[in-house]
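Exercise 7. Predict the structure of NB-ARC domain-containing protein from Piloderma croceum.
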Amino acid sequence: MAQQNFDARHGTNISVGRDQINLYHTSRLSSSSQLLPALISFNDAPDLLSCHFTGRKKELNYIKSVLSTVHGNAPNRCVVHGIPGIGKTQLALQYAELSYYRQQYSFIFWISGATVEKLNQGLAKVLTIVDHPDRDHPEQSTRLASVRHWFEQSNAWLLVLDNVALDAVAFLRENLPRKNSSGNILMTTRTAIVAEAAASVAGQQHQIFELRAPDLKDATNHLLREAGINADDAVAASTNGAEALVNCVGRLPLAISHVASFAKQSHVNLDDILHIYQSKHKFELISWENKLSRYEQKSVAITFSIQLEELERQSTDFGNFLKVLSFFDTESIPIKMITEGVDDLQLQIASDSSTPPLKPKRWRSLFPKIKSQWGWRGKHHAGHNYSPVIITTSTWIMTPKLESLINLISSPVHLQQAIQKLHCLSLVGYESTTASSAPNAITAVLRIHDLVQFMIQESMRREDMHDQWFNFAARLVCGAFRHVDDPTSQMCWAQCEMLSPHMQSLTRCDDEHAVKNYEFNEVSIGISQYLWSRGRYSEAETLSRRALAGTEILLGPQHLGTLRAVHQLAIVYDSQGRYKEAETLYGRVLKGRQKLLGSKHMDTLGTVHNLASTYQSQGRYSQAEMLYRRALAGSEKLLGHQHPNTLHTVHNLAIVYQLQGRCHKAETLFKRALAGREKVIGPDHLDTLGTLNNLANDYRLQGRYVEAETLLRRALAGREKVLGSEHPDTLQTIGNLAIIYKSQGRYGEAEKLYRRSLAGFEKVLGIEHPDTLRTVRNLTNFLMDQCRYEEATIVIDRFPLAFQSQ
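Solution. The predicted structure, encoded as tokens:
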């Protein structure tokens, strides 16, 4: 084994140091059957290891573990793959350095695997290093056979093959040693495809692993050390932008080295460099070439430009495909989203219409969540169909390039060829994963490094092609979103989560694009509805605001499409506790819809309902009751008594009665809503669970604690299963259960739930949200009732806003 002590392998051993000469004796024969002379111990690894190498302990230990494993009589292999600049060579150099000093190997040979020619030269050099009799043999085949024989007959060696290319795999398969468990082979390459091929030998698959960016701590330490910032200044430097800077370059070690060298040579502090990276001068910075060493002499821009140029040379379609990918979120780009988007686009082209009518069932006008004075939510569902607004989007001009790219994506074979080529050039990563919820469904995703994305975007701007490929990428996401029936339904959440990061990435790419495409704004609203339903209010607000800005410019402030965007933003404001802002927006929508649709239209009544909820949240119960009654009468007439929208208004009117102290009347309405919802949408639906939650609240007010606890436990179990433990609705139910426990004298259980609810609200909604402040008051009152005044004071000091209006 490679990690055995040298004494067990050789006759005599003198202490080993880097590149020191150590003599040992052997009786093995060369390929010419002659006795080998005394050999030297030698480390052939190039002296390119950065003196600032840091971290990577986990990866180094993994390599050591893999190369310690016995694979019969074959040399152990470990193949490391990753994008350019990620630090593969540095990792291999560090492993070689450490293992040589620890006397794990007598010989370390370093050979470039970039071409077959370099492999030939490197293997020939091995014969020279060991002073082999065949080192000057005129026949190449003889030299290759001799070096392979030497590896198979000699002990304690490590062969490092750096940057192995796909074209070199066949050569390696033929000429690398196939036996001798005392030797190890470590390879680096850019893609998993090459790694898998290189790790497969004699019917056995050796270990491979992907080297990814270092964690934030190691990346920051790398930057500080290379920039020459001493330990005393490290804390200040870290707080002044070092962490932000390494994140800005995607924690890519090569980029970090360039940032550090620029800082060192130009005497510019890290904060100033961060501003450069965040400005229009970013390309100039990553194009700058430092002169630190041979290993670092190329700029980051050149490193990736070479790959992009090679891609364009091989296929224009492949290059255009990569340009489209660059607009999406870099972490996980589902291939399914791309193919679904193209399928929808082809249907549009086939029907000779750039904007087919939006399907009514896929566009909902949503009611906001309602909260009682104790912070208990009545989860709601949109229910009624939204009348579609059919509008012509931005002009779609089919060009030969677009048609060719559509044909490529539409072909499963050509699409895989494109992905494979991008993967081989280390421009994208490729993964296939299986979801735990659907074991038979395989999800294939792509990913791009941030700096690769930036280089592609920059090249498009220079070629004035940014708008064309942005619009294509936007159409793909919009087409994929057409497969979503209802973004607020948990049945569609997986689809929406797949699309959400890419929709947000598109809106960040360039704000002026969004205003040109009405459908893009509509999908932004749809994704906002999804984010809102998951309790991700800040993200929902961002998309809603951008969609509204774009729609107002495209359609005008009074158009139904614009009012729809205003309505969604009002819903988000209401859920954030920004009731006055929500009230203002609802008032605008109500006025516009009454004028354009009439006072009895369901969309108008939906706004009436939502405005009532805002009044209720502000304690204006009489106004809320009046509007709820109006909405209920209209809904019963248009939709019937058992329609989900009707039942939702029944539910919310019950909350108002409860807040007014009319608990028995509230109970009657809650039971009507519960029975209807269990029948129409099912006992486990989120809306049904919301009614359970609020009916339990009513029971508590009546002193019926056992019944209340039973309903709350059922509601909590359902919400945790569907929404998760940190969703605001789940946290509300936890707080409600705490109130029940307190009323029953179960103080230990109550305190635990109060604190869990508060911690969750503070994390998810922030310290100023009404639900957070309401929970603070509940916990403080609980502590005061137990005469725990000092603990109550600590809570009050942390959340002073909770008591300013008291």
